[in-house]
Amino acid sequence: MRAFTCPICGGKLKIKIGTEYAACDSCGSLTKIDPEEAERFGEIYRSAERSMRLNSVEGYEEALRQLDSISFIEEAQKTHAECEKRLRDLQANLTQRQAPGSASESQNTSFAGVLLALTLVFCAAAFTGIAYLAFRLIQGTLSPTATALVIALAALAVVFAFLNKLKKPNR
Ligand SMILES: [Zn+2]
User: Fold this and answer.
1) DSSP at 11
2) pLDDT for res 64
3) 66 C-alpha vs ligand 1 centroid, how far in Å?
4) What's the 15 CA to ligand 1 centre distance in angstroms?
5) Which ranges of the chain have pLDDT less than 70?
6) Cα angle 126, 128, 129; round to 5
7) Which of 28, 93, 96, 157 has its CA 20 to 30 A from that of 136?
8) Measured distance between the N- and C-terminal CA atoms of the chain, rounded to whole angstroms
9) Residue 117: which H helix or E strand, with range?
10) Is 23 helix (H, G, I), strand (E, B) or coil?
11) pTM for the whole thing?
12) How far, in Å, is the centroid of ligand 1 from the Cα of 47?
């Protein structure tokens, strides 16, 4: 794409999207741009915006390429800087998530395994305890100590089951 220079002083022209006139960076005089050309720049700019909205490394790289090709557009320069910043943020985010992430992932898995085993143990104990209590209740020999113990077991089972549930959507 050709460079836009001022016909009076040869300075760089700054084009605004949606306008048919470009202002010279040096002398400030206005130069008319071909409306079709102006429309094409606008299209490239909008396409770059769409690429940015993908919020992916490829999207931002594509947007940067598109914005580079219309760097004489005022908005493109600003958006280019913004796009570079977002790409850097995204890449930093990705490396952060990949590096220690994979280690804690396996840690998470083994932790979840232990949690699940404990939950099953406590659930089994609570059920046994409840069955025992029911048996003692029928016999009329229910002791407060046994009742408290079984209630504690049931509470633990509920807590662990809850932790298990809580853990799942994270993985
Ligand atoms: Zn000029």
Assistant:
1) P
2) 98
3) 26
4) 13
5) 1-3, 100-108, 167-171
6) 60
7) 157
8) 48
9) helix 74-139
10) strand
11) 0.53
12) 30
| pLDDT at residue 29 in the model | 93
CB 74 within 8 A of CB 14: yes
For 96, other C-beta atoms within 10 Å of its C-beta total: 10
Residue 83 Cα to ligand 1 middle (Å): 29
84-98 pLDDT, tens digit per residue, is 999 999 999 998 887
Report residue 158 as tokens. 């509920």
Residue 4: predicted pLDDT: 80
Q: Say how many Å lie between the CA of residue 31 and the centre of ligand 1.
A: 9
Q: Chain-centre distance of CA 3, in angstroms? A: 38
The DSSP line for 90-108 is HHHHHHHHHHHHHHHHHHH
pLDDT of residue 113: 82
Alpha helices in 29-73 (DSSP H): 35-53, 57-68
**Please, which residues have CB within 8 angstroms of residue 153's CB and are 6 or more apart in sequence?**
122, 125, 126, 129
